[in-house]
């Protein structure tokens, strides 16, 4: 197999591969281009693996990278999307969730600001989705919401009394 890999990698000039690597923004794809360049310079697969600190499983991926590079060009060297857990809150309901978050907790709740646990309850009761506490914070991060909030004001606080107190102090 290693002989086939080296033979295929020699189809491109080392200069072409180096130029492509210089302009590649994705670090993993850039490393793959440089490894292919190393092979194109008549280095063995074992030498290339040592030079790039690749393990055996990554070494066997060389052939896949080359095949994908031949078929798709530079795009073939980029990582494929990996399957993950499905999104619980539908994209169509994200705007509605954000609107609810920005409205703040209802006055009847006695809360001055949302906490993660409160948002878990909101998601479960109003949106019908279950999230862990960490999942709530990841959702907020994905929706570009900061965990920094202005100092909360209790719904029953008296702004006039607060201003009078500040004047006396």
What does this 3D model show about the protein?
- The chain is mainly α and 169 residues long.
- 60% of the residues lie in helices and 0% in strands.
- The chain contains 9 helices and no strands.
- The chain has helices spanning 2-9, 14-23, 27-40, 45-51, 56-72, 91-103, 116-127, 133-142, 159-168.
Question: Care to give the gist of this entry?
Answer:
This protein is mainly alpha-helical. It is built from 9 helices and no strands.
Percent in helix: 55-70%
Question: Structural class, from secondary structure content?
Answer: mainly alpha
Beginning-to-end CA distance, first to last residue: 81 Å
Rg over CA atoms: 28 Å
Give the overall shape.
Answer: elongated
Task: Detail the topology: elements first, then pairings.
Elements: H1 2-9, H2 14-23, H3 27-40, H4 45-51, H5 56-72, H6 91-103, H7 116-127, H8 133-142, H9 159-168
Helix pairs in contact: 1-3, 2-3, 7-8
Offer a few descriptive terms.
mainly alpha, elongated, 169 residues, 9 helices, 60% helix
